[in-house]
Structure formats: structure tokens, C-alpha cells
Design goal:
The protein is mainly alpha-helical. It has one domain. The chain has 3 helices and no strands. The chain is elongated. It starts with a helix and ends in a 15-residue tail after the last helix.
Length: 89
């Protein structure tokens, strides 16, 4: 997967994260550590959302790392934007 595809995936995941953040009034970066520490939702009806939210955030973190690694690989010899920019149609 190239950096453009990874970036598109990151943006799609961010849209999903924004939906959860708006719904629950909480940033994902605040939610995720509490979820990992076993914090239970206040309402049982939130359980499925919390599981999905954590999964999306975990995937987002992974894609962020993939993107950084791909950019570092491309820029191995020199920090340049050459070959990185593609104008969306």
C-alpha cells in the first residue's frame, strides 16, 4: 500500500472517529486509554460502540505508523516533497 492509499485510509478512519467523538463528546485519545484500562461504559447500550471505536482508533494508530514508515522510506536519502505530492482530482 502506497502513501496515498494509506493517507486515504487515515482520512476515512478519522471520519469514523469524529462520529464517535461527536456522539459521546470525548476525544478518541482520551477514550482509548480508559477503554484499555477496562473502564466500562456508563450505559450498556454503548458497549458495541465502544468496541468499534477502540478498533477504529487502534487501526488509525497503525495506519499512522505505516504512513510515517512509508514517508521515511521514500525520503531515505533526502527530506524532500518530490514524488510525494499528488493533487486530488
Amino acid at each position: 500500500m502506497g502513501h496515498h492509499e494509506i493517507l486515504a485510509d487515515i482520512h476515512a478512519l478519522e471520519e469514523d472517529l469524529l462520529e464517535f467523538e461527536r456522539k459521546y463528546g470525548l476525544r478518541s485519545e482520551t477514550f482509548f486509554p480508559a477503554y484499555l484500562n477496562g473502564e466500562e461504559p456508563e450505559d450498556d447500550s454503548w458497549t458495541l460502540d465502544f468496541g468499534e471505536w477502540a478498533s477504529v482508533y487502534r487501526t488509525w494508530l497503525s495506519r499512522q505508523a505505516e504512513y510515517r514508515n512509508e514517508i521515511q522510506r521514500i525520503q531515505r536519502n533526502a527530506p524532500s516533497l518530490t514524488g510525494l505530492i499528488r493533487i486530488a482530482a
